Amino acid sequence: MSKHLIDLQNISKSFGNHLVLDEMNLYIRENEFLTLLGPSGCGKTTTLRIIGGFENPDVGKVIFDGKDITRLAPNKRQLNTVFQKYALFTHMTIAENIAFGLRIKKKSKAYIDDKIKYALKLVNLEEYGSRYPESLSGGQQQRVAIARAIVNEPKVLLLDEPLGALDLKLRQDMQYELIRLKKELGITFVYVTHDQEEALTMSDTIVVMNQGYIQQIGTPEMIYNEPENAFVADFIGDSNIISSTMIQDELVEILGVKFPCVDKGFGENKPVDVVIRPEDVELTTDVEKGRIQGVVSHIIFKGVHYEMEVMANGFEWLVHSTSCFPVGEKVGINVDPFNIQIMNKPESEDEEAVGVEE
């Protein structure tokens, strides 16, 4: 396993009376694509700005490659930041924009020309060096901003919602570009987004944040399939989250009906939350073969699948299926035991659940 390149130790940060980060601990490995994911105001951009040196923590340390850089100026750190607003210089050509940081560092003309050529090739803009920013599309401008950061050979690239201003198709294209760049360059990416699909597509590791706390850390598969609490389950994709009772190990009562499951250690007759993803709900027209019986109340065709709502035992189930069950049809509902995710009920509304992945 690669070493820890960045270590955030007990970081707290407030703006006025508003606590944005509360004793946050997080490490980032060398050559990792780590995404900070969460709703607006959760602390993800503040975390990025603290890593970049644009904000100082009130408490705590930022350790980079074994050295304390908490008070080091941004330009003294071995990292570069790409913001949502590309901030390209409109009076400079693309090549001059890319070379800007290198000129400040007083690199030789031959070195700079070499780097411009390399960076333009890397972001597939070889023919664009003599053009000006306004003649480029949003996606092309974003690639120039990334090229400008890359030529400085940072150990870490910080990206703050860099694709937020792009339309869906361009955004998807740029996601693949960033994955390719990360593989080719072998540098560490720290990425901020509130877009769950973006995080699932691109990341090695996702850090889900809410209200200044880390809710869960894990691979995209782990975050999606094994959410640690209802916030994560609800934030990452669609979910059926149902208040239930754990009867005993491997048996849970959902909406008055007993379902076998694979979870253990929750005690007997304990209140729990159950998470079932919409694609894991199995419908059958042989109503009696369903563990629960219901009626289809709503249907939308989504292209790859149908999205249906099924009213059963007083709960509106969200179901994704490639089979169409028309509105008004009576159906049976089944769920494979492996697809029933059991979670402890939080003791209070804002109880934090900190997931640590070693």
What composes the largest sheet? Answer: 6 strands, mixed
- Judged by helices, strands and strand pairing, the structural class is alpha+beta
Q: Give the beta-strand count.
A: 20
CATH architecture of the largest domain: 3-Layer(aba) Sandwich
Sum up the overall morphology in one term: elongated
Distance between the termini: 10 Å
Q: Low-confidence parts, pLDDT < 50 over ≥5 residues?
A: 351-358
C-alpha Rg (nearest Å): 24 Å
Q: Could you say what the CATH topology of the largest domain is called?
A: Rossmann fold
Model description:
23% of the residues lie in helices and 35% in strands. With 358 residues, the protein is of the alpha+beta class. The chain has two domains: 4-225, Rossmann fold, CATH 3.40.50.300; 239-344, OB fold (Dihydrolipoamide Acetyltransferase, E2P). The strands form four sheets. Strands 6-7-8-3-9-10 form a six-stranded mixed sheet, with helices on both faces. Strands 13-12-11-14-20 form a five-stranded antiparallel sheet. A five-stranded antiparallel sheet has the order 15-19-16-17-18, with no helix packed on it. It is elongated, with a radius of gyration of 24 Å.
Looking at this protein, list some descriptive labels.
2 domains, elongated, 20 strands, 8 helices, OB fold (Dihydrolipoamide Acetyltransferase, E2P), 6-stranded mixed beta sheet, alpha+beta
Topology:
Blueprint: E1 4-15, E2 18-29, E3 33-37, H1 44-52, E4 59-64, E5 67-68, E6 79-82, H2 94-104, H3 109-122, H4 138-150, E7 156-160, H5 168-185, E8 188-193, H6 196-202, E9 205-210, E10 213-218, H7 220-225, H8 230-235, E11 240-248, E12 251-254, E13 257-260, E14 270-276, E15 282-284, E16 292-301, E17 306-312, E18 315-321, E19 330-334, E20 341-344
Parallel strand pairs: 3-8, 3-9, 6-7, 7-8
Antiparallel strand pairs: 1-2, 1-4, 4-5, 9-10, 11-12, 11-14, 12-13, 14-20, 15-19, 16-17, 16-19, 17-18
Helix pairs in contact: 2-3, 2-4, 3-4
